[in-house]
Each structure stands twice: as C-alpha cells, then as structure tokens.
Amino acid sequence: MCVLGILTREKSYGYEIMKELEKHNLKLKGVGSIYPILNKLKDYEWVNTHLEITESGKVRIYYEINERGKLQLQRKIEEWLELQEDIRSLLGSNVKGE
Amino acid sequence: MSSQLSRKEEMFLTEVLEELEQYGTSEEERKTIRQQIVEHMEESREHGEDGVESLGGAAGFVNDFLEISDIDLPSEIKNIRTTPEKKKALFAAGFCTLIGTYLLSQLVLSLVATDSFNPLNKNGFDDYHLLYQISEDPWWNTMLLLVSISISCLAAFVVMRFWGRLLKTRRKIQ
Description:
Oligomer: heterodimer
Shape of chain B: elongated
Radius of gyration of chain A: 17 Å
Order of helices and strands of chain B: HHHHHH
Strand content of chain B: under 5%
Shape of chain A: elongated
Number of domains of chain A: 1
Structural class of chain A: alpha+beta
Strand order of the largest sheet of chain A: 1-3-2
Number of domains of chain B: 2
Largest interface: A-B, 19 and 25 residues
Largest sheet of chain B: none
Helix content of chain A: 55-70%
Number of helices of chain A: 4
Strand content of chain A: 15-25%
Number of strands of chain A: 3
Structural class of chain B: mainly alpha
CATH architecture of chain A: Orthogonal Bundle
Helix content of chain B: over 70%
Radius of gyration of chain B: 27 Å
C-alpha cells in the first residue's frame, strides 16, 4: 500500500522508493524486500515497468502505477481507515474505562 | 550490466541467483532480480553505501525474497533434498525407454522391412541378431539400425522431458 502510495506521486525505481519509505520511518524487514514487493505489484498488474538509461549510463527499472493499481490503492486506503477507526474506538473505550 | 560490479558484488549476485534457482524461481524472474540487484549496487555505490551489506547478504536477501514471494521455505528445502533422487529416477526412466523402444523398433523393422522372419525365405539367415543384425544386406541393415536408434532416442527424450515438466508442475502446486 505504501509503495503504491509513493508511486501515485510519480514513477520511481527500487532504490528511490526504499529511501522514500525510510524518510517516513517505514523500515522494511530487509532492504532487499523492496524488490520482491515490486515484483509482486507487477505480477498483480498494478504497476507498469520500463527501463530507462540515466545520463551516467546506468540502467534503471522504473515503476509506474496504472489504473488497476490506483483502484487497488483506493480500496486498501479505505480498508486501512476502517481498521484504524475500529482500533481507535476500541482503545478510546479502554481509556474511558480507566 | 554486471561488468560494472565489483568482485564482492558479483559473488553476491551469483550466490543469490544460484540459490533462487534451487528454490524453483523461473529464468524470467531471475533475470529481473539480476537487473534489480545490479541497479541497487550501482545506486548504493553512488550514495557511498555498501550494496551487499544493505541487502543483508545473500542469505538475508534470499530469505526476504522467499518470504515476500510466499514461497514455503521448509517444503522447498525438502524438494531440493529429494531432487537428486528424482533426477536419478528420471534418467532411469529415460534409459529404460531408450532400450525398450530400440528393441521394439528392431523387432517391428525385422518383421516389416526385412525377410528375416519370412517363412518363404528358404535360404535362411543364420547371423540374425535383434540388437545389430536384422538384415542380410549390410547397407539396409545400417539404415534400419539408424532408424531404430533415432526412434529410441526421440522416445527417451520425450519421456524425460514430459516427466521432468510433470515433476516441476507438481512442485509448484505443492
């Protein structure tokens, strides 16, 4: 969900996505985890990929969210917000009970 | 792409790809992972980081990959352990098919393409041998032998290929 969220802003590549997650204190289990996550998103056809050659001659795989991905992200965000609301109401009643 | 990697990075890449191959990842998947790792190494180097260490070493990377790709590690390890036995069975099946088809082909060719079993052939054919001598005519005998060898090799190849694919499919389903 977070990776798709990053990709809604602009297309990006593995290393940059990883750094963006770190900026928001979202640490993956292992840094290398970002790549299988990206492969999974591609398998689900939520992102499109293409190769780009940088000025320094490096080849980068760019990931770009597509319409299916955007739809999926919207669903996930709604699910997440619902869950968050449920947890808040549960914890809120605990606080009141003290 | 990989020519720009250091020796340590190359070793890491080779180790990861070899391990992933053992766990049944496809060539296409490994090609993508190779590209991703090379890209990661180059980016890390540019940002003054050690790409190999940041990926948690080969074992760490493979573990993360398998976990996120929903590959069941214990059953995959079991599969890897049983693979040599399966390979032996596969070669045994191929060998048996080769011999069986060769003998069958020689027998059929003896019946339909030679006079060896012709009751009207009164001269007889004393040197008949199912394995290598089914016709009196050396040139024709050689031709028939080549036909039998070709058919049996083809049959063995087909059996091994289909059996191999069947084993792979079962492994993926498991």
